[in-house]
Amino acid sequence: MSTCTTASRDLDEPLAGTAATARTWLLLEQPGPWGARALTSSHLDPEVGRALEAAAEGTGVRIALIRRPGRHADSHPSARRRVYVAHTAPGNTWLRGHVTDRPEELLDLDLAALGAGDHGGFGTPHTGDPLALVCTNGKRDRCCAVLGRPLAAELATSGEQGVWEVTHLGGHRFSPTLLVLPYGYAYGRSGQAAVKEILEGVRTGRVVTEGCRGSSAWDRPGQAAELAVRTATGEDAAGALSVVHTAGTAPRWDVTVAHTDGRQWRVTVVQGASLPLRPESCGAALAAPARMDVVAVRPIAYGAAQEIPATVTSE
């Protein structure tokens, strides 16, 4: 039986420009089973989950539940939970950890400040391995469980200490999907060897662009534009590029991408539709997902425009 993942792969649907958008991620460990809306359908107190969802609205913070890879029996959940908060904007990228036995204490956080990049002293700086968050929530889409859980288990067995299962990253049809912190780049159709290369890049401050969906710090046109500049220039330093301005509205944008060394590029991004029709998730009706086509990358102060093929898409 065809799945959303096999349809997307067979149609060679591009990955870039499809990442979730969130400058700040707040991650709470929650063992046991997850429902489709995990914050309110898990062993987490649903009142706490609803309150966190409401508090995060409009702040730039995305909240997700995490758990260690392995079996998740519906019994004896641990009272002690890991909490991570990460800000992904270049120039102010950080990842902090905390341990709590009272998830409701997260309601005391200033989520607007976290979204703006101010951690307010919450937790302590994370000094361990980078986090690899693999989407495994089969209640959202079966592909996430069928493809994501084996990947998370393989990575953990291989010795990667920063591997967690996560409730939802979007883009089921690109499973297995993962998000890497602290830099906030998302990846799709990932295998163990590729993820190990990605994590080694993070350890040395580099971004691997193969299989990359984009940085969650930017909106979808910005994700497409930044990856296009990386591809055109070969730049792989994690904090080197920022999206500094976006002009226009759908279906066409001019995005300005700046380098820390002063160079800038104007990237033209056009929204189109992915054809032929395909399911965006298993069991969904056939649809034409929106795509972000990069049609030009032009150095602003360093000479003539460089035209590149339209190879970037977005959901």
Overall pLDDT level: 91
Helix content: 10-25%
- Kindly report the spatial arrangement of strands forming the biggest sheet: 5-4-3-1-2-7-6-8-9-10
Note the overall shape: globular
How many strands, which pairing sense, and closed or not: the largest β-sheet? 10 strands, mixed
Ends apart, CA distance between termini = 23 Å
Q: Using the CA coordinates, give the radius of gyration.
A: 19 Å
The topology string of helices and strands comes to: HEHEEEHEEHEEEHEHEEEEEE
Helices and strands: which structural class? alpha+beta
Strand content: 25-35%
Indicate the low-confidence ranges by residue numbers.
308-315
Number of DSSP helices?
Answer: 6
Number of E-state strands: 16
Quick overview of this protein structure:
The chain has six helices and 16 strands. The protein is an alpha+beta fold. 46% of the residues are buried.
Keywords for this entry:
single chain; 315 residues; alpha+beta; ten-stranded mixed beta sheet; four-stranded antiparallel beta sheet; 16 strands; globular; disordered C terminus
Structure description:
The protein is an alpha+beta fold and 315 residues long. It is built from six helices and 16 strands. It has helices at 4-10, 46-56, 111-115, 142-157, 192-203, 220-233; strands at residues 24-29, 61-67, 81-87, 94-100, 124-125, 131-135, 163-166, 178-181, 185-187, 212-215, 241-249, 252-259, 264-273, 278-279, 286-287, 290-299. Mean pLDDT is 91; it is low at 308-315. Strand 1, helix 2 and strand 2 form a beta-alpha-beta unit. The strands form three sheets. A ten-stranded mixed sheet has the order 5-4-3-1-2-7-6-8-9-10. 21% of the residues lie in helices and 29% in strands. It is globular, with a radius of gyration of 19 Å. The protein starts with a helix and ends in a 16-residue tail after the last strand.
